[in-house]
## 1
Amino acid sequence: MASQEQKIINVKDDKGAASDGVLHYTSYNPADRLGRAAIALVACLIAAGVTLFIPIAHFFLVPAFLIAGPVLFFLRYKQTDAKGNVDSRCPRCHESVVIELEATDKLPKWSFCPKCDCSLELSEK
């Protein structure tokens, strides 16, 4: 079962001031990873089957879905965790902020403060 986890990270602005933040992420075990990957593969195969009956588009849609299926299977199976967001206090404006991350983001990562628009570096502690 996928588990919601948290860890403390550093949040630094471009002037060097720093504060701590909490990274929220989802960690997947091997069974979850296999299930997510299989769903992506089956969805691509179903899409290829449905687009088989579209007269002209089936010449490029069916091969595209047949190629995308194994690629998505591999990428989903390889992903061990999915980043969520970072709760922190901005080192410059001292406001409480929530920074949304993409699921595949890697740390260190540069972002910005949603309150004062200063540059922030999110990095491992």
Note: Helices lie at 30-51, 58-78.
## 2
Amino acid sequence: MDLDFETVFDPSREVLESLWHGLEGFNRSVLGGYDYARLAVVVRNEDGDVIGGLCGELLWDWLHVQCLWVDEGLRDRGVGTKLVRMAEDAAISRGIDNIHLETTSFQALDFYLKNGYEVFGQLEGKPAGHTWYYLKKENIAGGR
């Protein structure tokens, strides 16, 4: 069998979808059926512009928070905490009781710690001069 290997920077959507589809097929062959959903909690200003929000995915009994951003003018006003609480409530409504996420030493580590998340791993030097933290919050429904 002739195989052609290539390294691709910024691969096409088609390539990425093929890879994810293949991985999902394997996962389902091992785990059987499972639910998957994307999630966004958004805050808008009076003009309808997005000025903050959280996005993630619900998969395998966990919510993975992929991003959380709040416009600088809204920080330290409880907006981030409300976004996190709304995402937690949405996860609970889907039967998901655990959350994990990543942040860096220059982003929001203290924010997540104040909101009940705990560090379970870290990677020094990602990016250079900083630390990448892995956080989780388990039993969110029972912990309230």
Note: The CA atoms of residues 70 and 77 lie 10 Å apart.
